[in-house]
Write a structure and sequence with these properties.
Blueprint (H helix, E strand, L loop, with lengths): L11 H11 L18 E6 L5 E4 L2 E7 L5 E6 L5 E3 L11 E5 L5 E10 L6 E9 L5 E3 L11 E6 L2 E7 L8 E7 L15 E4 L2 E4 L2 E10 L2 E9 L5 E8 L5 E7 L4 E5 L3 E2 L3 E10 L3 E8 L5 E5 L4 H7 L2 E9 L2 E7 L19 E7 L6 E4 L1
Antiparallel strand pairs: 1-26, 2-3, 3-4, 4-5, 6-7, 7-8, 8-9, 10-11, 11-12, 13-14, 15-16, 16-17, 17-18, 19-21, 20-21, 21-22, 22-23, 23-27, 24-25, 25-26
């Protein structure tokens, strides 16, 4: 049973209304999409681009309301959709879902006072039990003088990004803390912080994770460095207490803009979206073993011309079970968060597509 944040039971009529509000966007028995490179099932069509995360058959993502603000919606393993009782924000919300300390699904999400700036500010992490509606802060990730973002939860632990100090907000690492820790926790995991400039190595003015995932003792992150040379993205995997390993990198140069999206872990692999625009326009999923020794790619189904002209891309990916992926496929974009384009006035937005991971035509690129 779903309950409101005040822990009052949701009446059946209210739950039915929630499902009706979500309408065909979160269908209990979604219709299969037309055959294509993915052979996917359409779970939702959104007006806005959004992060998405999944676990145990659950999904959570952001939805824009009529006032232009964003809330969180969830889809249960049975296909029921419901709006989560979180305060609306001015931008899509960073949110992750995973098993909580008691094994039930737990959502961790970011609340930012200024969410529409290039780097959101005033950000702290909260936790929400989707089965009871209980909403509470995460003290270890709610320091008032720094910004904590990109939370991910697994069991009793939560991972999130956090600056090393208030004086250097653009130099950020990954902190891993106990959910019930009463004190702020400093970052302890860092990717590359320097880049080559000529014959020297210099510290990048900006570095840190732009999305991360936690599973057991493994953490993965899309790590960005900028300002010391070409903008570079790295897919990092850290197992146990060892040093992070760079699985793949993507570099922006004069001709091509490259970036990596938030990764998602399974027991043996990591998957992340990669986008390249410029002389090469390509959107695809990268799938790699945790060691990086083997790698595969999966195309979006868009041509280079479509990607360049309309901003079409795979913008997010998650895993709801070991064999089912969900991707956000952006049909068009105005360059911000909405999935619209002036050349495509009838474009409906972003699709959330469910894929059978093993059945996809993955192309081996590293053996």
């Amino acid at each position: 049973m779903y309950v409101t944040p005040r822990s009052s039971p949701v009446r059946p009529a209210v739950l039915a209304l929630a499902a009706a509000v979500l309408g065909g966007a979160v269908a209990a028995t979604p219709a299969a999409a037309a055959p294509g490179p993915f052979a996917p099932t359409v779970l939702s069509v959104e007006q806005n681009d959004t992060p998405v995360d999944g676990w145990g058959g659950w999904l959570v993502w952001s939805r824009r309301d009529d006032a232009g603000r964003y809330g969180l919606v969830a889809r249960s393993p049975e296909g029921t959709g419901v709006r989560l009782g979180v305060a609306p924000q001015d931008a899509p919300i960073d949110a992750g879902i995973g098993p909580g300390p008691d094994g039930r699904p737990l959502v961790v999400y970011t609340v930012c006072r200024q969410a529409t700036t290039v780097v959101p500010t005033g950000c702290d992490v909260r936790r929400l039990d989707v089965t009871t509606g209980e909403d509470a802060p995460v003290p270890a990730a709610s320091s008032p003088d720094v910004d904590e973002r990109f939370p991910s939860v697994w069991g009793t632990r939560v991972a999130f990004s956090r600056p090393a100090s208030p004086a250097r907000p653009l130099r950020t690492g990954i902190a891993i803390a106990d959910l019930d820790s009463p004190v702020a926790v400093a970052p302890s995991v860092f990717g590359t912080r320097t880049e080559k400039r000529g014959r020297r190595r210099v510290t990048s003015p900006e570095y840190g994770p732009q999305g991360l995932d936690l599973r057991g003792s493994v953490v993965a992150a899309s790590w960005r460095t900028a300002g010391a040379g070409p903008e570079r993205w790295r897919l990092l995997v850290r197992r146990g207490s060892g040093a992070p390993r760079t699985v793949v990198s993507a570099t922006t140069n004069r001709r091509t803009l490259s970036r990596l999206g938030r990764p998602v872990l399974s027991a043996r692999e990591v998957v992340a979206p990669r986008q390249r625009a410029g002389t090469t326009n390509r959107s695809e999923l990268l799938r790699s073993t945790l060691s990086g020794s083997r790698m595969w790619t999966l195309g979006s189904g868009f041509s280079d011309a479509q990607s360049e002209r309309y901003g079409s891309a795979l913008s997010a990916v998650t895993r709801i079970t070991e064999d089912r992926l969900v991707v956000v496929r952006r049909l068009a974009s105005d360059g911000r968060w909405s999935c619209k384009h002036p050349l495509l006035p009838a474009a409906r937005g972003c699709e959330l597509l469910q894929l059978d991971a093993a059945a996809q035509p993955w192309r081996r690129v590293r053996r």
